[in-house]
Amino acid sequence: MAIEIKTVGIIGAGQMGSGIAHVCAMAGLDVRLNDRDTAKIYSGLATIDGNLARQVSKGTITDEQRRSGVSRILAAESYDDLAACDLVIEAATEDEATKRQIFTALCPSLKPDALVATNTSSISITRLAAATDRPERFIGIHFMNPVPVMQLVELIRGIATADPTYVSAKAFIAKLGKISTMSEDFPAFIVNRILLPMINEAIYTLYEGVGSVEAIDTAMKLGANHPMGPLQLADFIGLDTCLSVMQVLYEGLADSKYRPCPLLVKYVEAGWLGRKTKRGFYDYRGETPVPTR
Ligand SMILES: NC(=O)c1ccc[n+]([C@@H]2O[C@H](COP(=O)([O-])OP(=O)(O)OC[C@H]3O[C@@H](n4cnc5c(N)ncnc54)[C@H](O)[C@@H]3O)[C@@H](O)[C@H]2O)c1
Fold this sequence. Notes:
293 residues; N-(1-d-carboxylethyl)-l-norvaline Dehydrogenase, domain 2; eight-stranded mixed β-sheet; globular; binds nicotinamide-adenine-dinucleotide; NAD(P)-bd_dom_sf; 3-hydroxybutyryl-CoA dehydrogenase; 3-OHacyl-CoA_DH; oxidoreductase
């Protein structure tokens, strides 16, 4: 039986988890936000409040809507705090071992009929489902960044995902006012299968000295009509996430055309992960982003 989602648990309070919490709360759902790092839960809550305050100042929502939205999101410091959830969405770091450990530890705390989803950008839904006690109630729900702005959500069924799980997830996305598409369970699904090799190629173009950061981003903005340059977009996504997706494509499809650019590897090794660490292809420590190459 399909179920109506009223209470949503979110694991991982980074840029995606807090964005998902934001849109769920504004759609009238109750939200429980968890992170391995308790401080991240509270910084996530502060970020959501700040983003809603910006919407109030732009006049897109009222202050009353902001206050009632914020009041619907509670901190969940342990998995037991997710016991009442109808759906739990995992939005932790893009690393298969991390996600598998979360699912194994999480499931004993959940209601038997609760659905479990992952916001992974690339990892096999079928393999992640196998780390749960309910593969038939498991599905990929891939939100885009920034969640409050982007319309699309990719739904990905694992081999065991049951029809009612898919129907419930589709209705949940519609309730958030977003559009869903269905992708088969292949590495990186549709959006990132196409987008990330383009970003990786832009990094190769920089690595080989074909152009500077500014030249590459300007070329793609003005020459291909992209709203944002590929290097700016990479910083926005997070370079660690970009590298993980390329590794999943490279290993999952066994094709050398997906080889991650060595410069991307080096940036991640340096801890230069883009906007979230204030340094990536641009330096964000000043008032305006400055290209680093
Ligand atoms: N950044 C994007 O553009 C984007 C878009 C779509 C999907 N995603 C996916 O969303 C997920 C999260 O990405 P993000 O950009 O929010 O990353 P992020 O680095 O901003 O946040 C990840 C959060 O996960 C937490 N975390 C790590 N291990 C955990 C654990 N064991 N238990 C609980 N929390 C844990 C971290 O403390 C951090 O707060 C990834 O799977 C990523 O691929 C990212």
